[in-house]
Amino acid sequence: MEWREAEERACQYLRSLGYLIVARNWRWRGGEVDIIAKDGDTLVFVEVKHRAGGRFGAPAEAVDSRKRKKLLLAAKAFLGKDLGKVPVRFDVISLLGRELSHFKGAFGEDG
Q: 108: closest CA among 92, 97, 93, 95?
């Protein structure tokens, strides 16, 4: 499975839970967010990680402090003047082979 297929699977999964996909591969000067979705009133920034096998550890382990910081900055950039007015959450979707795991609220605004 390549990264595009992994992201598509993640979107399908989120839609099955009732999430509305707002943006995919949203780019800004500091990087990219794989998926931005709405879960009710909450705006969810989703990082998708995929690995074919577990030889190099779980995919979610790749969301290190540097990546978390980038996602926090991306949320601030995306929200702009609405920062603080909209509930925000940071999720990680991990695909190890074909097995999907969803880490809802994987980290907070403090990283």
A: 92
Contact 45, 91 (CB under 8 A): yes
The model carries a pTM of 0.87
* Torsion on CA atoms 100, 50, 28, 108, rounded to nearest 10: 50
Domain positions in the chain: 3-107
The CATH number assigned to the domain with range 3-107 reads: 3.40.1350.10
pLDDT along the chain (111 residues), means of 10: 84 97 92 94 92 56 73 89 88 87 82 53
35 beta partners: 24, 46
What is the helix (H) or strand (E) element at residue 91, kind and residue range?
A: strand 88-96
SS in 3 state form for 21-36? Answer: EEEEEEEECCEEEEEE
CA distances from 61 to 50, 52, 55, 65, 106 (A): 11, 14, 12, 10, 11
